[in-house]
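Supplementary Methods. Inverse-folding protocol.

Structures were first reduced to a discrete structure-token string of length 383. This string, shown here, constituted the complete conditioning input.
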């Protein structure tokens, strides 16, 4: 997601917009779809990867999102008011909000920092704890790992934020901006008309995913054909809907005014596209080089956590979803995923970079310290 910031005269309102977003997304998505229609062995590899990504990962991500966004939609508690009444506990609260899957909680903390209501340590805590939308992917496929990373995020984020406030003081790089964050005023989009078709594909896809996960035996012929049909349509439809959605990925998952179903579907489509991209990166690399990435990463194993941590510096959730996909497929160790989870800032980094760039960059660099310590501690003691 690329965001540009427009300040509206005296009201000083912030609008997350991007004039070139749709063009970039559609170009990226159409390239992936075009690969699926290639002939021969290469095309078959691409299609199988897309089907596996949808049936084995995306349907479970969607289910997880139905649960989390459903709970979020039912919650009417004013977090901003709560933060103003609990100043002594801003750092651990910020870490907890950051650790919550998705970027919504982290964005709230970032905007509160921008308005001078919380300390720089709280900003470090939330950016250290947040994993963005990649958390949904981990929770859907490996819930026990997702819970581990959630707990680590809170603990590491809290400790980091407290230490930073002790070193620099609570007024360090304090911002007093009165800018208000708003969304683009689009509640329905062209792709929303496909929501019903998305659900029609998701329901059998989720059933097939459950059957596959538990290795339940049914008629092989019909199962294989339905597996391929549902997986292919689901993958292509998800990529298509994401590619032609004019909204930012951040707004898709956090703007409560857009409706429960749209938030679930749009966020699932975003994660699905990047999961498929991760699958394809691996398969295309193998196809053209004949190099086994698992063996390659094993040869450079001590450096893999560091590479994953550096990858976490890339803004946005998309690249981090790719890292999570590599972990779930066994190409990189858990220590690398933990390091990436701590170092990456998700979509929360975009508004921070736009309104407080120096603080955002420094906070991101600070998050690398606990990422390295925790990742390599896990690497040396448990792997």
């Amino acid at each position: 997601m690329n965001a540009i910031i427009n300040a509206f005269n005296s009201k000083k309102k912030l609008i997350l917009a991007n004039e070139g977003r749709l063009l970039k997304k559609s170009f990226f998505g159409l390239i992936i779809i075009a690969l699926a229609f290639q002939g021969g062995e290469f095309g078959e590899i691409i299609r199988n990867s897309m089907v596996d990504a949808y049936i084995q990962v995306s349907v479970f991500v969607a289910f997880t999102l139905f649960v989390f966004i459903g709970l979020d939609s039912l919650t009417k508690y004013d977090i901003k008011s709560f933060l103003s009444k609990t100043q002594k506990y801003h750092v651990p609260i910020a870490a907890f909000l950051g650790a919550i899957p998705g970027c919504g909680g982290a964005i709230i903390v970032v905007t509160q920092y921008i308005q001078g209501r919380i300390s720089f340590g709280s900003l470090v805590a939330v950016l250290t704890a947040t994993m963005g939308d990649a958390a949904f992917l981990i929770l859907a496929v490996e819930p026990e790992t997702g819970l581990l990373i959630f707990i680590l995020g809170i603990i590491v984020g809290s400790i980091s934020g407290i230490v930073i406030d002790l070193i620099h003081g609570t007024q360090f790089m304090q911002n007093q901006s009165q800018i208000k964050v708003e969304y683009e005023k689009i509640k329905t989009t062209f792709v929303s008309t496909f929501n019903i078709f998305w659900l029609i594909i998701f329901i059998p896809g989720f059933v097939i995913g459950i059957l596959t996960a538990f290795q339940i035996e049914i008629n092989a012929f019909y199962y294989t054909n339905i597996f391929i049909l549902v997986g292919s349509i689901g993958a292509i439809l998800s990529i298509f809907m994401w590619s032609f959605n004019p909204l930012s990925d951040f707004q898709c998952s956090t703007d409560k005014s857009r409706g429960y179903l749209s938030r679930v579907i749009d966020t699932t489509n975003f994660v699905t596209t990047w999961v498929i991209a991760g699958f394809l990166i691996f398969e295309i690399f193998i196809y053209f080089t004949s190099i086994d990435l698992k063996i390659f990463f094993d040869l450079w194993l001590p450096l893999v956590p560091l590479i994953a941590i550096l990858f976490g510096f890339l803004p946005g959730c998309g690249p981090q979803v790719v890292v999570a996909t590599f972990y779930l497929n066994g190409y990189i160790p858990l220590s690398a995923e933990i390091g990436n989870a701590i170092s990456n800032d998700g979509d929360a980094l975009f508004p921070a970079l736009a309104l407080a760039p120096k603080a955002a960059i420094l906070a991101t660099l600070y998050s690398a310290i606990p990422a390295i310590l925790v990742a390599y501690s896990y690497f040396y003691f448990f792997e």
